[in-house]
Amino acid sequence: MSDLATTVTVIDACGRVAVPVLLLSDPGMGKSSLVRGIAAAEGVPCETVLGSIREPADVAGLPVVTDHGVTLSPPAWAQRLAEAAAGYLFLDELTTCPPAVQAAMLAVALDRVVGDLALPPAVRVVAGANPPDRAADGWEMSPPLANRFCHITFQPSVDDWLDGMTVGWSAPPASRAITADPTRAEAVKALVTGFIRHKPEHLHTFPRTAEGTGGPWPSRRVWAMLAAALANVRDNDAAARQAITFGLVGEGVCVEFLTWCERVDLPDPAAVVDDPSLVDWTDRPDRVWAVLSAVVGWAASAGTAEAWRKAWGPLLAAAEAGAPDVLAAAARPLAQCRPASARVPATVRARFAPVLAAARLSGAGAA
């Protein structure tokens, strides 16, 4: 359960990277008021789509025969958002939507595609739902739809409600989210990939109960969503980090992942590239992998020949310390992201010949 300021932060952090958020609460908690208030505070429109009174074509687009074939004409609400170029799409009462409408919402929720219309990048998707047993003619959410959202339990405090009544619902708390730069984004991605290398059984865990499939659970898709969204909250914002992680991968895996993140304590990849001796390369393999993964991500995001050549330094340092399995796993993606103008350093060619051959770089000239 998140406080109102954390909920606003999660919506903002997820919205910056096109991760849709699902607000779950009892009826009458103010989910729609919050989303409309955020939109009003940002000066953008909010379009509410109530799926229980819609047909699938009202969400996925109405087939129209033209001289060039059949097109899917987007509904008016989607056209208005496209014309505004920004705003919020609020999919309300999601657990009252019949399965056919839920299926139509799959592309809308994550890809923001309505019929043949792609919504602008600045359009954010938020949904609201009551538990199925408390919704009018409630339906369990389908696993594919549930796995497209960051699930947030929404229960504003008494003080939150009093503040809203006093100052108006169009003045929500300020977001604590940040915009991640490429270095931070790659560092967080390294945390996610490092954890999965440490605990590969958590990469995809389909729930064993029907009730569980309607909530957050780990999949390849949500781990990628987590890496993107988590980069937009500060490391010391424990509430937002926990809410996003819990909302995407579920409680048990959330605890394991956040505990592992605290324990692994990754250094800045740029600092490691400048001075590989900052790292104890004889440390735990999962930590060494995470550090090298962050270095590879740093080089890939930089996209320059110089960064690519420098990124081999930590790998060579790790090789001297001895970590063959981890080393090969990090060397492969680094070899594959070589800029066209980059030449393979002679020391790298001697040490990583099999990896370079697999990446078809054995013929690239040495620097």
TrEMBL record:
<dbReference type="GO" id="GO:0005524">
    <property type="term" value="F:ATP binding"/>
</dbReference>
<feature type="domain" description="ATPase dynein-related AAA">
    <location>
        <begin position="20"/>
        <end position="149"/>
    </location>
</feature>
<dbReference type="GO" id="GO:0016887">
    <property type="term" value="F:ATP hydrolysis activity"/>
</dbReference>
<dbReference type="InterPro" id="IPR011704">
    <property type="entry name" value="ATPase_dyneun-rel_AAA"/>
</dbReference>
<protein>
    <submittedName>
        <fullName>MoxR-like ATPase</fullName>
    </submittedName>
</protein>
<dbReference type="Pfam" id="PF07728">
    <property type="entry name" value="AAA_5"/>
</dbReference>
<dbReference type="InterPro" id="IPR027417">
    <property type="entry name" value="P-loop_NTPase"/>
</dbReference>
